[in-house]
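Good morning,

Attaching, inline, the backbone tokens for the sequence recovery test we're adding to the shared suite. The designed sequence is right after.
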């Protein structure tokens, strides 16, 4: 069994207890306008083209049998992704690392072998493996099989999800998951449609079902200035969480711009390039609202109780 895996990151300390090895899955079902991993939204690998590293040797053009790469009228390289078969020949041919793909198909055995290299650190730090992305549940069968293998080896598995997937794909993983890191971004349905690009009633529905079935859920809120950090929106989100039984912890993740270059590399317009990064007063105000609702609050998302 294979999955499109973007990265396997070792020694992460933000996505669960102890040292975590994070497996980043390709693919997502949402289109959040503030996404900082836009290369992972597509279900197949995205082309990342680093213009400043490119020396225009044109080796990629010559190697592409599908003629997917061409030169624009401004003399720049461009890729027609509809013609690209993801053979990865152009990436291999580019000695300047100017051209690469966001993920590769990797065998389950190879992923397992890679994450198990950190076993001793998991045992000593109460750590484990975290599935992230993208949206891991887009490749839910692979997640399930990998989680089962890790469970057999008594390794803790966390999943970071936005919850916009069929309930069945979440449900079958429940027995093997230590902690769900559940993204909760907005409650207003019109705002959801505009900012996340989908009708997201399913996100709240899945969260209700999950909270009834699993005791360890950490709510993660990417806090975006003027969008979900108002008293009204944030307060309404807390009111919704109050109706669930098992939520104790809320992580507030202040918006950042670390992924903005990636939009240029995948040649997509980034609508939020001018968005204010860190409105400290609103971050603290939202943290206070969550605390008043009785939640343990962590700004940055590295504390787990
Ligand atoms: S092979 Fe790399 S350096 Fe050469 S033209 Fe293509 S992207 Fe640029
Ligand atoms: S991956 Fe293959 S088909 Fe796609 S642009 Fe590169 S060489 Fe062409
Ligand atoms: S859910 Fe996450 S990965 Fe998917 S589009 Fe939104 S921010 Fe990006």
């Amino acid at each position: 069994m294979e999955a499109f895996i973007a990265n396997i990151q070792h020694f992460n300390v933000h996505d669960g207890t102890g040292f975590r090895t994070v497996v980043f899955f390709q693919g997502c079902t949402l289109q959040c306008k503030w996404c900082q991993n836009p290369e992972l939204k597509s279900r197949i690998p995205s082309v990342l083209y680093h213009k400043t590293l490119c020396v225009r040797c044109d080796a990629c053009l010559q190697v592409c049998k599908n003629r997917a790469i061409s030169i624009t009228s401004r003399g720049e390289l461009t890729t027609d992704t509809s013609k690209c078969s993801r053979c990865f020949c152009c990436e291999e041919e580019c000695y300047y690392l100017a051209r690469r793909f966001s993920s590769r198909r990797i065998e389950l055995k190879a992923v397992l072998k890679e994450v198990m290299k950190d076993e001793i650190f998991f045992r000593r730090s109460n750590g484990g493996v975290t599935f992230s992305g993208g949206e891991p549940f887009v490749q839910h069968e692979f997640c399930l099989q990998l989680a089962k293998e890790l469970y057999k080896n008594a390794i803790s598995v966390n999943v970071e999800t936005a919850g916009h997937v069929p309930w069945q794909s979440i449900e079958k993983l429940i027995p093997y998951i230590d902690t769900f890191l559940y993204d909760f971004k907005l409650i207003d349905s019109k705002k959801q449609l505009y900012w996340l690009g989908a009708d997201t009633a399913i996100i709240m529905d899945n969260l209700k079902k999950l909270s009834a079935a699993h005791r360890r859920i950490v709510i993660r809120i990417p806090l975006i200035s003027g969008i979900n950090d108002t008293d009204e929106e944030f307060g309404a989100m807390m009111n919704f969480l109050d109706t669930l039984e098992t939520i104790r912890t809320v992580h507030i993740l202040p918006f950042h711009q670390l992924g903005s270059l990636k939009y240029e590399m995948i040649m997509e317009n980034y609508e939020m390039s001018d968005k204010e990064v860190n409105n400290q007063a609103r971050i603290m105000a939202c943290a206070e609202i969550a605390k008043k609702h009785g939640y343990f609050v962590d700004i940055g998302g590295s504390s787990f109780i």
